[in-house]
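Hi everyone,

Forwarding the result from last night's run.
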Amino acid sequence: MKLAVIGLGLIGGSMAKDLRRTKFATEIIGVDNHPLNARLAVEMGIADRIESLEVAVKEADIVLIAIPVDKIVLLLPYILDHISPSTTVIDVGSTKREITESVKDHPLRGNFIPSHPMSGTENSGPSAAIEHLFENKICIVCDHEKCRPQHLALAEKMYQSLGMPIAYMSSDEQDHTTAFISHLPHATSFALANAVLAIEDRNIIFDLASGGFQSTVRLAKSSPQMWSPIFWQNRDYIHEALEVYIRHLEEFKKSLKQNDHEGLTALIVNANKIRGVLEGENSSLTKNEETIIKFYTK
């Protein structure tokens, strides 16, 4: 299977490593607009060779698009224009509605599998690529009824070779769900980092920072080139998620201001119910939401 990987950073590079390791891919053609990333990818064995976008998509059996979501919207129609009718195109962006909308009327829309493998780290570039990044993590496949069966089956086989269970959603459902369990955590981590950075005498804070702070603010090190477009494309659902989150923060703030110790404790006790969700007990969440939360918080 000849695989073209467009974007040789953390996600594209990690997938290439594992697809080579599992022998799903027999040859990997890399495409990256950063010459240093392209050179590193070949040196690290992520890609066998580097080609232009036009050459890579014409030669590949599968085209894997692992670039920022705003760039996916721009390049996806071009890619579908230049592939053969037998080529499968898979994107791995964290948002889906704008991406799927951009090719809804394309003659080869059925060759395209919109997906979101829900794994990653705060690091970026080819040097961040690691094996087994996706193992036992969930992948969301969107609008599968609009995909031609042979292309959907090949994408499913690819994700199965990575050890990923698959959930099926509409693009709208995926954007709404991930706004709460993926995009909101990043937004709050960026906000926490900015709050601490705004403190005038913050050196002592960083000197005393413990594991809790480090793990909470870790996501604030994520790439702005990747995350700013995600926030923008999914801004309505992220706004909704932030409104809900801020309302709950206000409840904590109110209990402290009013010296309501009992109320504060009740908020913490209620929050502890998340343990039951993660451990498979009954909740008000849908089956898809529970599954995704479990895998995303492993």
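The domain at 173-296 is CATH 1.10.3660.10 (6-phosphogluconate dehydrogenase C-terminal fold).

Cheers,
N.
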